[in-house]
Specification:
The protein has seven helices and 26 strands. The protein is an alpha+beta fold. It has three domains: about 110 residues, DNA Polymerase III, Chain A, domain 2; about 120 residues, Roll (DNA Polymerase III, Chain A, domain 2); about 110 residues, DNA Polymerase III, subunit A, domain 2 (DNA Polymerase III, Chain A, domain 2), CATH 3.10.150.10.
Length: about 375
């Protein structure tokens, strides 16, 4: 194999596929990236056997061929080379030479015959969605994915496709994020994508209105983003019926500035994180919301103006669960719906009817 390409082209491709290289593995071949050059194209492939990524770029192919190079080594070398053309050529023995201007490296290769093929996805179902829309949907749900492997199905995000509507749902037993959007599709189906896969997809796609094609088989998903393909297994099992969890009505509702609430909760969390349950407490009376937290190091008291319907309420939440959602909401105002101080509450952006966040309250001792 012998190719000539630019540093920027090669580095961009390496950065994309490195997202699938495992940080720890018992199979040394998976620590490498497969280089496959032919017909004026260079295809890079990486996989950890759970997720695989391949991306194609235009290069000058002097001599076609395949080689597997250490992901860490080739990535570090290319990042430190000058912004110039790079020549990669197989050398005698199990070596590859990498040249750029006055620099020349020789690195050991791994056997490309041992590199696993990515699964072939039977395209039984598929949707088309704009990159910026998918990126936004991932951002507003991924943080609520469970990290507890005891219930593996909750470590993924549900794709609930009903005709031209996609609903993405993530929940961890304490909070749930639900985001809807319109897509190009005709079928009805459900699939649960691992949170890690979706997180990496979110890093690769951009804010453009270019389309992403996503294909589903029984066990796998394939995402086509321009010249990049991501293949991942799907999670097996039945996802929780999320619609049954959403309260049908509420008794108290407030409207408040999302930025002011975020800043107040952030300050209250300074003491909450010193406590055993990371708890912040809300007292809502008339048009005033008081946010409090305390620990052995002190306490904090914040006041915010709100618009309220219904009775007064005292309720507490895990500070992280509240702050996480406020970080991703873009609407200037939100509404919060309460039923009781032990029932789930619902947060909705005022200017985004297609998003809701459910959060369970924390137990606390009422003031006498």
């Amino acid at each position: 194999m012998k190719i000539i390409t630019t540093k920027s082209t090669l580095l961009e491709s390496i950065n994309v596929v490195q997202k699938a290289v495992p940080s720890k593995t018992t199979l040394p071949i998976l620590e490498g990236i497969l280089f496959d050059a032919k017909g004026g194209k260079l295809k890079l492939t990486a996989t950890d056997l759970e997720i695989g990524i391949e991306t194609v770029s235009n290069v000058d192919v002097i001599e076609p061929g395949k080689v597997v190079l250490s992901s860490r080594m080739v990535g570090d070398i290319v990042r430190k080379l000058p912004d110039s053309d790079i020549e990669i050529e197989t050398a005698e023995g199990n070596f590859v030479s990498i040249k750029s201007e006055g620099s020349k490296f020789k690195i050991v290769t791994l056997s490309y015959d041992e590199y696993p093929d990515l699964p072939v996805v039977k395209k039984e179902n598929g949707i088309t969605i704009k990159q910026n829309v998918l990126k936004d949907m991932i951002k507003k749900t991924i943080f609520a994915v469970s990290t507890d492997e005891v219930r593996p199905i909750l470590t993924g995000v549900l794709f609930d496709v009903a005709g031209k509507e996609l609903t993405m749902v993530a929940l961890d037993g304490f909070r749930m994020a639900v985001k809807n959007n319109i897509i190009m599709n005709d079928n009805d189906f459900k699939a649960v994508i691992p949170g890690k896969t979706l997180s990496e997809i979110g890093k690769i796609i951009n804010e453009s209105e270019d389309n992403v094609n996503i294909y589903f088989s029984k066990n796998h998903i394939q995402v086509q983003i321009e010249d990049t393909i991501i293949v991942s297994r799907l999670l097996e099992g039945e996802f929780i019926n999320y619609k049954q969890i959403i309260p049908a009505e509420y008794k108290i509702k407030i409207k408040v500035s999302s930025n002011l609430l975020m800043e107040a909760c952030d300050r209250a969390a300074l003491f909450a994180r010193d406590s055993s349950n990371n708890m912040i407490k809300f007292e809502i009376n008339d048009d005033m919301m008081v946010i409090m937290s305390n620990s052995q190091n002190g306490d904090v008291h914040e006041e915010l103006k709100v618009q309220k319907e219904g009775n007064d309420i005292e309720i507490a939440f895990n500070a992280k669960y509240f702050i996480d959602v406020l970080k991703v909401i873009e609407s200037e105002e939100i509404t919060i719906e309460f039923t009781t101080n032990v029932s789930p509450s619902i947060i909705r952006p005022v200017k985004d009817e297609d998003y809701l966040y459910l959060v369970l309250p924390a137990r606390f001792k009422k003031n006498n």
